[in-house]
Write a structure and sequence with these properties.
The complex is a heterodimer. By secondary structure, chain A is an alpha/beta fold. Helix content of chain A is about 40%, strand content about 15%. Chain A contains six helices and seven strands. The longest helix of chain A is centred in the C-terminal third of the chain and has 17 residues. Chain A is globular, with a radius of gyration of 17 Å. Chain B is α+β, with helices and mostly antiparallel strands. Chain B is built from five helices and five strands. Chain B has a five-stranded antiparallel beta sheet, with helices on one face. In chain B, helix 2 packs antiparallel against helix 5. Chain B is globular. Chain B starts with 8 loop residues before the first strand and ends with a strand. Classes of the chains: A alpha/beta, B alpha+beta. Chains A and B meet through helix 2, helix 3 and helix 6 of A and helix 1, helix 2 and helix 5 of B.
Chain lengths: ~150, ~150
């Protein structure tokens, strides 16, 4: 696939500019660098398939998005389509030093903008996260069980 | 005497079922303890993710649970003992994609049927015991290495 830029890290400041985003958390360190970006509304998948050093783009506003980011050492969260999380969620993110942004771009376009600018994807294939063997083993076990 | 025995630390936390506002606080506390103990960041990450998946399972499915964190110089053990409906078929529950979570849980971004499988992936050892109508105990052991 043709891209305008090769893979590179990106400062949060640049992400904000590209996505025309508003910063929701006080004292956010905008010089912080991210290596990858991932996008999902399904935190179950984010927990299973995200690399550390990532920024998460999501349309989900629940406080669990911030908790998920905490467990995974994510660098920042971008809420898309202008959706704002509630004050408790913002307060929790501030407490843990996790910058939150809101962008009016829809998810697909926000991802496309960052991808074009060179930020590679975080939500790799299942194989890349050590899932393929696990799933195959489970499938085999189930099949064996069915024969008993 | 006990001079050669590694220091063993134990912490116990409580999780209430259906308490979605505070879900994740226990995992966050566990995470901070491991950071203070100087555990390797990769180990902290997979321990935190597995603890959080287990905590969400309690909040979604159980009535209440005690979560115990035990650490020594070699391993981190997290035991989640809940009072709840129990799991009738553990093998089925382990299948990626199998879920009994209600629709409102899915709207929160959870309940995709990845929790137990992800805990299995993150932990070096996972043990599950369950009695239907009484509850489930999940024990996860993590090797405390880089």
């Amino acid at each position: 696939m043709e891209r305008l830029s090769s893979n590179r890290r990106m400062k949060l400041r640049e992400i904000i500019e590209l996505l025309d985003a508003e910063v929701l958390t006080r004292n956010a360190d905008l010089e912080r660098e991210v290596e990858y970006a991932g996008a999902s509304d399904l935190m179950s998948d984010v927990l299973a398939f995200t690399r550390p050093g990532s920024v998460l783009l999501t349309g989900l506003q629940s406080i669990q998005v911030v908790r998920t980011a905490e467990m995974l050492d994510l660098k920042a969260i971008v809420f898309v389509r202008g959706k704002r999380p509630d004050a408790n969620t913002i307060a929790l993110a501030e407490e843990m030093g996790l910058p939150l942004f809101v962008s009016s771009y829809p998810l697909y376009e926000a991802c496309g903008i960052l991808y074009q600018a060179g930020l590679p994807g975080s939500l790799g294939t299942a194989e890349a996260h050590g899932w393929n063997d696990l799933m195959n083993n489970r499938a085999v076990k189930t099949a064996e069980g069915a024969l008993e | 005497m006990l001079e050669d025995a590694p220091p063993r630390l134990t912490y116990t936390f409580h999780v209430e079922g259906q308490d979605f506002a505070t879900a994740g606080e226990v995992s966050s506390k566990i995470r901070r303890i491991l950071q203070q103990l100087g555990v390797h960041p990769d180990t902290i990450r997979r321990t935190s993710v597995a603890a959080y998946e287990a905590e969400m399972n309690v909040v979604i499915h159980a009535y209440r649970a005690d979560v115990t964190l035990e650490t020594d110089d070699r391993t981190i053990t997290i035991t989640v003992k809940d009072e709840g409906p129990g799991i009738p078929d553990i093998e089925q529950a382990m299948q990626p994609g199998f879920s009994t979570a209600p629709e409102e849980i899915r709207e929160m971004g959870f309940g995709a049927g990845m929790g137990l499988a992800n805990m299995d992936r993150c932990a070096d050892r996972l043990e599950i015991e369950s009695v239907v109508g009484q509850g489930t105990t999940v024990r996860m052991v993590f090797n405390n290495t880089a």
